[in-house]
Amino acid sequence: MKYTEFNKFCKALPGTTYVMQWGGCHVWKVAEKVFAIGGWENDHESYTFKVSPWAFEVLQEQPGLRPAPYLASRGLKWIQHYDKPGLNDAQLKKYLKESYDIVLSGVSKKKRRELGLLQD
User: Fold this and answer.
1) CA–CA dist 54, 77 (Å, integer)
2) DSSP bridge partners of 96
């Protein structure tokens, strides 16, 4: 997946915002909370996303994936897709959507309602 497709996918998720920060990373947020990062590797695309504890245990052992530098070292369950074979595009999109859902689940109902992400 290239950054253009990554950005297009993340932009299509409801209530997301984009900022370029941390030395040129593509950072996607929902309710001002990060759910996906494109970047942190200089020679090729890399993607970082939040996962469930179970997925963290499984994914960190797969070639091309690793606990996300900085984030995982602080006990956070984030995985970085940094090399091949890693995940195919469909799998990566699935995990990006799951990351979005995990982050959104931690947002208050009031905030989700304000953002139009919660129906009454």
Assistant:
1) 9
2) none
Dihedral class, residue 10 (left if φ above 0, else alpha if ψ from -120 to 50, else beta): alpha
Taking only the tens place, the pLDDT of each residue in 48-107 is: 999 999 999 999 999 999 999 888 778 899 999 999 999 999 999 999 999 999 999 999
% the chain with pLDDT above 70: 95
Q: What is the C-alpha to C-alpha distance for residues 15 and 55, in angstroms, rounded to an integer?
A: 25
Mean pLDDT over residues 108-113, rounded?
92
CATH 3.90.180.10 for domain 3-102, yes or no, is no
Inter-residue contact 63 to 75 (CB < 8 Å):
no
The CA distances from residue 13 to 66, 100, 114, 118, in Å, are 25, 8, 16, 14
The answer to whether 68 touches 78, Cβ cutoff 8 Å, is: yes
